Amino acid sequence: MVRRTLEHALSSQWIDEVFEAQRAEPQVVRALVQGSAERLLPVVRPMKKQGPWAAGYQVRVLDGNHLPASEKRLEPLRNFRGAALPGQSLAVYAPELGLVVDVLPAEDAHAQERALMGPVLERVREGELWLADRNFSTSGILRAMEEKKAAFIIREHGVSPNPSALGEKQEVGRGQTGRVYEQAVRVEGERPLELRRIEVHLDEPTEDGETVIRLLTNVPAEKKSALEVAELYRKRWTIEGMFGELEAVLESEVRRLGKPRAALLAFGVAVLAYNALSVVKSAVEASHDLEASNMQVSTYYIAAEVKFTYGGMMVMVEPEEWAEQEVQSAEQLSADLLEMAKKVKPATLRKHPRAAKKKVKKGYAPGEAVRKHVATARVLKGEKLS
C-alpha cells in the first residue's frame, strides 16, 4: 500500500518538472511537500468518516519547527562550545485528513517565525480556519487572513497586536481546561479589525507558569461559541504529535547533517514519507471498525512493517508491474487501498499509548549556558561566533 501511495504522490514526470523549475534546494523541498499533498488529498478524503472539526471550514494548523543542534563537523563550528542550529521550518497541517499540506524551510535558525509568513499567507484560501500560537499574533498576519476571507483562532501575544476592548468581559461557561470568558475587541489601524477575544482561565498553569490564555478570532459567534473556539484551539496540539512521529518514526532530525540545506532536505523527505504512511493508516482505520474496540493504529508499527517487507517485495515484483500506478486516478487508488486494507490485521498495528508523564521540576542551569547557540547558516556566511 505504501509503495502505491508513494507512486501516486510522486510521479516521475512531476518530480522532473519540480527539479527543472526550482533549483534552490529549500524551494524544492517545499514544492515536493506541496505537490505530493495535493495529489494525496483526493485519495484520503473518501476514507474519512468523521465529521469536520468545524462545519463549513477546512482546518489548518500552523506551527514552527526548529531542527535540533547538529554535530559540529563543519570546520567553522569545531571550536564553538554552544549548539549549532541547522535551520527551521513552518509547517501547515490538515489535522482532519492527517496530511502536512505545506512546509516552508528556512536555513536561518535565528529568523523570527512571523517574518517567514509571507509565502505561507499567499496560499491562505477562503473557507479555511487557521489555528496558530502567539508567535503569529501580529496585526499584519490577522489582516492578511481577513482579507483572504479565511477564519483564524490565534493565541494573543502579550504586546502584539494589542487590541482595544469594545466592551466588558463576560463569563460564558466552563471548558475542558478552565473557565471561559468572551470580549469584543478591535485592532486599530487604517483598516480597523473587530474581533472576539476568548479568554481561558486555566485550572492548571502551563509549563511556563501562565494561568490565562487569550485567543483572537474572527469566527462569528453564530458559527462557533466561545467554548467551541477554546476547544478548537486546544486541538492545535495535534501538530505536536505529528512532529513527534516525524522524529521518532521517520528520523526527520538527522544530527549528522550540519549544513542547513542537507538537514532541511532530510526533514522534507521525512514529511513526504509521513504523508504516505498517514494515507495507509487512514485506509486501515476506514476498513475496520476500530471504535468498537477502542483501538488506535500506530504509525510506528506501519513504518516497521514497511521496513521489514519492502526489500523482499522489490526483489519479487518486477519494475514493469508498477508502471500502471503512474496513470491511476486518485479515486481508483483510494478504492484499491481500502480493499487491500481489509486484509490487514489491525491488532498487529495496534497503538500502545503511554501513561501521562509525571511532571518533574527541571534542575538549575545558568541562563548563559542555556541560551548559547548559533545559526549555522549565519556562520557559513561569515558571521563571527560570539
Question: In short, what is this structure?
Answer:
With 386 residues, the chain is α+β, with helices and mostly antiparallel strands. The chain has one domain. It contains twelve helices and twelve strands.
Kindly report the average pLDDT value.
Answer: 86
* Class based on secondary structure composition and strand pairing: alpha+beta
Largest sheet: 10 strands, mixed
Distance between the termini: 51 Å
| Uncertain ranges | 12-24
The tally of beta strands, per DSSP, is 12
Question: How many separate domains?
Answer: 1
So what's the overall shape? globular
* Range of helix content: 25-40%
Helix/strand order, N-terminal first: HHHEEEEHEHEEEEEEHHHHHHEH
Q: Strand portion, in percent?
A: 15-25%
